[in-house]
Amino acid sequence: MVKLRLKRCGRKQRAVYRIVAIDVRSRREGKDLRKVGFYDPIKNQTYLNVPAILYFLEKGAQPTGTVQDILKKAEVFKELHPNQPKFN
């Protein structure tokens, strides 16, 4: 099973995160399938590769709670096809 989750980057006390599609059994810093976004909580900046995110969501990838909140804020779920399950 594939999940969309955050992968920590940056230096000490200055974390930035990549949003990646990764196998559930991999650890946080493990090998990812594809980088699909970027999130900087300090500057509150977000970059999302929406077509790649939609591709993984349509294939059944599950976003983690934090990634789900980021995607909701960016209104990515509105672009899903009507027959796809919506995430609350």
TrEMBL record:
Name the UniProt record assigns to this protein: Small ribosomal subunit protein bS16c
Keywords: Chloroplast, Plastid, Ribonucleoprotein, Ribosomal protein
Superkingdom of origin organism: Eukaryota
Cited Pfam families: Ribosomal_S16
GO molecular function: structural constituent of ribosome
GO biological process: mitochondrial translation
GO cellular component, one term: mitochondrion
N-terminal signal peptide: none
Family: Belongs to the bacterial ribosomal protein bS16 family.
Organism: Lycium ruthenicum
Cellular localisation: Plastid, Chloroplast
Main location: plastid
